[in-house]
User: Fold these one by one.
Assistant:
Number 1:
Amino acid sequence: MAGLLERHIAVITGSGSGIGRAIALGYAREGAHVAVADIDAKAAAETVEAITAAGGKAQSFTLDVTDRDKCREIAGEIRRQIGQVTILVNNAGINRRNAFTADPQAVTKDWQDIMAVNLNGVFNVTHALLEQLRASRGRIVNIASIQSFMHVRTPNSLAYTTSKHGVLGFTRALAAELGKDGVRVNAIGPGLIETPLNARARANHPELVKIFLDHTPLGRTGKPEDIVGPAIFLACDLSGYVTGSIIMADGGYRVI
Ligand SMILES: NC(=O)c1ccc[n+]([C@@H]2O[C@H](COP(=O)([O-])OP(=O)(O)OC[C@H]3O[C@@H](n4cnc5c(N)ncnc54)[C@H](O)[C@@H]3O)[C@@H](O)[C@H]2O)c1
């Protein structure tokens, strides 16, 4: 049976680890040719290895999403080496957990770094791929968060919450603008997903996990694979009339 993403070419940022890697594997399983883009070249290569070992198609690209010129360069390289991009997943993201009242230098650095990756990075990559996505009537999937709506009561940074509110705003504004070109723009809001991003926080703050679970009707933390289904749905033709939306994959966090 043909996969849901046959003949698609998907760029997934931050796909050397965690949620991005799981989405890359899932897209390749559905037939997409995946451009695995990550600042960590070794991690990107490992994702490609896992995809090709499973019989899928992928190539790795070393990309720092904060580097606007490099984003343009890589967009051109992907076009030449694989073909016209039809799907972009803006997944690369970082978090730090200093309170706003902590050491001013640390807080300022957190703000600059988090905005550079989580928000400016989304702009940089999307803008670099804009012409390809318009030409292919493509699909954009942005990885947002429950923190696109609220600040969770765990050690967390103001910058992260602000950046994820921004990702949702970007999603809605871009969906409004690109609808006429047939480009769909949506987001996914994961809850607490067990990845390297939060491994230290989970280990050092068991109360963090408890706060989440007390708030989660499904009563468990998420795995990267929990994000794959929504990501495939938003990238394939099954979601042909869906744009400007966010799918929450958070175990129901926001309902209690
Ligand atoms: N894990 C969660 O609980 C959770 C919840 C909500 C949202 N998210 C979001 O999901 C996305 C993926 O997070 P994850 O948990 O899989 O994290 P992760 O740390 O496992 O993976 C993030 C990947 O992004 C890459 N990356 C970091 N900075 C980069 C840059 N400047 N340019 C290119 N790549 C870069 C890293 O090398 C890494 O491979 C992030 O946007 C994160 O904010 C995660």
Number 2:
Amino acid sequence: MDREALQERYGIIGESAAIKQVVDKIMQVSGTDITVLLQGESGVGKDVTARAIHSLSKRTRNDLVIVNCGAIPEGIIESELFGHEKGSFTGAHEARKGYFEKADGGTIFLDEIGDTPKNIQVKLLRVLESGEFFRVGSSKMYTADVRVIAATNKDLWELVQQGKFREDLYYRLDTVKIKLPPLRDRQDDIIPIFRKFVTEFSSKYDSVFQGFSDEAKELLVSYRWPGNIRELRNVAEQLVVLEKSQFIDKDTLQKYLKGRQHLGSADNLPVLSRNDYEEEESSGFDGHSGADMGIIYRALLEMQGDISDLKKMLAKFVYSTFSDKELKALPSTMPRDIDPNDISSHIYRDSQSSKESLGISTPADHHHEKDDDDVESFFAGKEIPSIEEAEKFLIEQALKRYEGNRRKASEALGVSERTLYRKLDQYDLQ
Ligand SMILES: Nc1ncnc2c1ncn2[C@@H]1O[C@H](COP(=O)(O)OP(=O)(O)OP(=O)(O)O)[C@@H](O)[C@H]1O
Ligand SMILES: [Mg+2]
């Protein structure tokens, strides 16, 4: 099968060099039994990739067992993975096979592997190395012929450094890694993928998509897509449903993109007029169907997460880096809609005790004229920056403060040096 045929068959859209590399790697590894680690942000296509690898392999006639390691409660994960014997714990009325036995002859997809408890990690390592495992409550050794595909949206090496992930398991998994790039790093793919979703949803909702203006198209491509392809899919669905048969201009599109606008304002919520629903079936909830409410709820949740992360990040940075004088200079340019109980409200206070109560260590307070200017220009004209802008800014400031010493800068930022290198690369910083 060539690359185009594979992409067609598994719905993997994209012509970018990055996606071609991913597809080439899928083709290289699928004929083997080698363990594969899929790494990428949420919504980049890890599931799709795992399914393609299994389906192209000789194991395709047997099962692909998908396990979300982050979603199984810690108390039962061992028996879920490896099974248990009758009577091995309260409620174990019958012996039961675990996922590894169910996947015998097939593939197991261990999603969110970074969230696996450490005592289970050692057992995973054994299965990976020898195919051997024990059911809970049994001393009999079982073996299963299982191909393992693991996925993570975390930096596993960072988890190793934090003591949350076993180093030996990390090396075992890291041999063949497929890195799925975020959508913003493959902008050429955005329009073709969007088109696919629009076609799909137009037929599902029996709606006609009228296209969009050049400006809207530019925005679609330049937007940073924090939720990647899943977010693009959601936006396509919302446009098809909520902007039924409308020509989409930039302002309309903007309402559906959450990352770029002023976080914390209600502007980035889709505006839903009652007219949109008049012909639609009512679910008895104020005339809005469950699906509509779902869309709104999701938008709210996503927005809330971004804001609180950003507030915490800013508060931590500001408090650990700025002098009291600099702190006093901030309020005129900082957002004012902050909940007084929220951590970032401490930005407005300048007592050492509030720094301590936040558990933030403060370096000796030097005054930096230059930094003042940077802070002013960074916030100028904006209510609040995007998370990425803020992150980039923080990194630049830390490097400047420590005269390019990356070890000190990474310590000040509270990240590993490796993460700092990755970020420097990501943001093209020298
Ligand atoms: N290259 C692609 N072309 C078209 N659609 C894609 C592509 N990659 C992923 N998708 C679609 O994007 C959505 C998200 O993909 P998927 O579930 O595989 O992401 P994921 O990386 O597993 O996300 P998560 O980390 O949240 O589990 C799915 O609807 C999938 O079909
Ligand atoms: Mg997934």
